[in-house]
Amino acid sequence: MFFRRLSLLGFSALFFAAGSLSFSQEKINQNCIIAKSDEEVSSVAWSQDGKFFASAWNNSIALWDSQSGEIIEIYREHTKPVKKVHFSKGGNRLLSLGQDNIVVMRDIVGSSGTIRAVGSDLQPMNDAVFAGDNTSVILPGEGNVATLYFPLRLTNQFISKKLVKTASPVTSFDLSYDGSTLLAGTEEGKAYILNINDGSGERIFSYYKDSGIPPRISGDGKFIFYQSDSQSLEVTSIDGRESFTIRDSDFPVKTASFSSDGRLIAYAVKNGGIKIFSLQSKRTRHFFTLPLDQDMVTSLAFSPNSQKMLAGTEKGLLLCWNISDNSQAVKNQQNPEDFINSQKNSGKKEAKPVTDIPLSQTSEEADGYFSNQESQAEEKELDKAGAETQNLKNALELSFLVTSLNEDYYHTSFGLSAAWKSYKKLPFFYGAGAEFSFAVPASDYPYTTSYEGIELNNPWLYRAHLYALTGLGHYIKEYNLLFFCEGRLGLGGNMLFNNELKYRRTSKASYCILADALAGIQWKALTIYAGSEFDSSLGFIVKAGAGVVIHLGK
């Protein structure tokens, strides 16, 4: 026994003190911390970086600091009880799934806000997980399809990719830590394993469909377990080389979990306890008894180092054990009710979603999702506080330009320009560029000059410029539209080159200082601009350009 049982008198006092509170907390002994709510703790989760853990009861979620044991935030974004909480791989986003058929994805350490994925009556959401990153999520799709969704904030849409078609509705998901291997359970008792990066390695196996627990995969992706009958838990390696059975008369269980290192399996038993089974020794390593009689564990989660274990129960207890040395796992002196009251007194508003996305209306197929690194970079940039847009970080702009020379000799020149621009500090941007253009002389070209005794008649005009640029821009996220004005300052050369001499070609060069003032608009990868240029050789001239923008990533 790893902790001392509380006396009946002690618990009576505890519940008397907690009766008037929606969520109260006590430290009960040296092995675990208990928090008491009026509702079942339906789900618990630990972030992969170990900094946070989360617990859900009724329609509320508490985010905890794992070191201090203090509550960081309480979220009330669901209208019905929460079924599941799950952290992203980076640990900075938290997902919750409610009985209201809504999945909420919130940023817990940044300021990118909250996205709500709203299901329909035809698309019930029985489970949801982050897909190995901070942005994409795997949900049950219409027509018994496990579907990966990637939210685009700029267009308020989800890009979707079908992962696997199942014979019956999907009831559970589990994913390896690296996000590559998916395990999906279905209503008829079939489980599907596949590599979601390339769709390889798909396998189907049967499990006990009346099981209280869904199939689960180890963090390293090497083992899975599932309930094969009312008193057996099957453990097998993904490659099928190793398999064994855990038999226990205390089944059925309501929840079970792999440890983070894949060496332990914790499962709740019907007598109100938790057993921890070692895959190495093939025997039970620990047994924990709940402090309340006739209570049942409903949710379990191991810490990333596999040394601590969270448990939530039907009677609203939240416990945390240190399973490695039987010492106190979390030091927690904070009363959650005081935290809730302090939020109200300070006038702090609860987190509100910034984007509501009905999946059934906005999903679209994107088979090239995993090869589309630009889309992935797009959403990651949006998650950074203060980022203006994913497109405008560093860009290469290629333009076709037309210049009116305002002369009788050369009416118009045509050319190409290339400019590198940095938009990291919007509304200010800067960069550098070069352009090359040429002009054909007018038909009545009156210009005549000589070079080394040879007369130049009707020479072509070639222009080459190097310049630095800076400007101001205003970006409208909803339309992916950038309005900008910019100034350029640089050096250039103009060359008259005679192409009509019969025996030799000659040229005459001049050098100039140039200054441009331009204004334009950029939509997605297209840009147009116009303005005036001062050339110290040619005077003031009018120019315009149109081109494409190539995004260079972060």
Automatic annotation (TrEMBL):
Name of one Pfam family that matches: ANAPC4_WD40
Signal sequence annotation: 1-17
InterPro entries: Apc4-like_WD40_dom, WD40/YVTN_repeat-like_dom_sf, WD40_repeat_dom_sf, WD40_rpt
Name recorded for this polypeptide: WD40 repeat protein
Coiled-coil parts of chain: none
Keywords, comma-separated and alphabetical: Signal, WD repeat
Bias-annotated ranges (Polar residues): 332-345
Region (Disordered): 332-358
Domain Anaphase-promoting complex subunit 4-like WD40, first and last residues per copy: 35-88, 227-302
Presence of keyword Cytoplasm: no
WD repeat ranges per the UniProt record: 34-74, 290-331
